[in-house]
Amino acid sequence: MTLFCWLVSRRETRQRIFVDLADSTGKIQGVLEKAVVDKSVVREAKIAPLESALEIQGVVQAGKAKNSEIAITDVRVVGTVSPSQKIRPRAVLPGWPVPTQRQVDTALKLRHLYLRNPNLMATMRFRHELLKHLREWFDRNGFVSVEAPILTPVPLYEDETAVKLQVHDQPVFLTQCVSYYLEAAVHAFERVYSIGPSFRAKESESPRHLVEFWHVKAEVAWGNLDDIIMLTEKMILDILVQLGENAERIAFELRLRSAVAKMTPPYERIEYTEALARLERKGIKIKFGLGIHGERQLAIASEFSSPFWLVGLPAENEPFPYSLNPEDDRLTRTADLVLPQRFGELLGVAEKISDPTALDQRLQEKGKFGNPAYDFIRDVHQLGCAPHVAFGMGLERLIRWMLGLPHVRDAIAFPRLVGRKFYP
Predict the structure, then answer these.
(1) Taking the complete model, does pTM exceed 0.90, yes or no?
(2) What's the whole-number average pLDDT of the chain?
(3) Spatial separation of the C-alpha atoms in residues 8 and 265, rounded to whole Å
(4) Distance (Å, rounded) from C-alpha 130 to C-alpha 126?
(5) Taking a C-beta distance cutoff of 8 angstroms, is the pair 413, 424 a contact?
């Protein structure tokens, strides 16, 4: 057989050379009998630098530990290693899932090389599987994929929280959320989704935030807040079960089983006013109308062993498209799904405004009414706008929680972080 691979490690005895070889599927040991092969092959096996790209000829056989190994008959170096390169990402593994700060810095600085790290490779394979199952779930449940633009004239949140650009003399933003575009599309297809990058200029060094992340967004026509809550609960549980049943994900099996056991819906719902009362009992008093984020949110989450909904977020902090609570217009018809064990918010859901007059009123409250950049949103609401609901979830947050990772930077191949130069 012929194996194209990389040289991870080497051990030598008087009669044999043992090499650990890796490719995209994993590792295997190769054994070279010095007395059997040509001397030039022995010399090549001895001097090939670690991390070299190799072409190996040999025969697969049973090893002493009941694992397969390769009896090597020939070795050819296909890609050598520069003498200046001392890094060995396949062999020197950062601690996982909790590395030291030094290991984190090295793995981030040399991310283009550490993609070869078996732990990072396994996480990226998991991400690949998760995305596949997410898309299949949307397809099975009647959703149409919509590719929304990354460049947009208006952000969902305040302008200062978005990344600003100048393109063809027009000021634009990198998308924070594709909500406006899915809102237009849902009136054509009734169920739509998008999975793509989003960007945030707001500085945060929490383990839940990236400057650039992948956003799973969906909108559904003819629904209310209860409908979208139940839909997202079903989606998460379905995806977890599918991943847990996948034998190829054996490296993460225990973590996923543990997650499935704690994700059986429905999840408890905590109203905003109740959350304030819980915080006050902990000695944390905040003004009505302020958001419950960060350590405040984690303080409430410490009381739970399973996810819970924080329902009725304050209108002062929520974007204008979200419906107000008819019983208390200081609050919106929205909810955040919060995870226990300090993982924090996973996703948000919202019942959106369908009435044009109510939309204009919210635009005025936010100081955006009369801005022509928002005309296309008003157009959607003035032409047979139906009741509709939405959810948005950070893909990296879901991966972080499912695998018990310390930071969302570990859930993406090339993370963009606050406080670090964007390299590579």
Answers:
(1) yes
(2) 93
(3) 45
(4) 6
(5) no
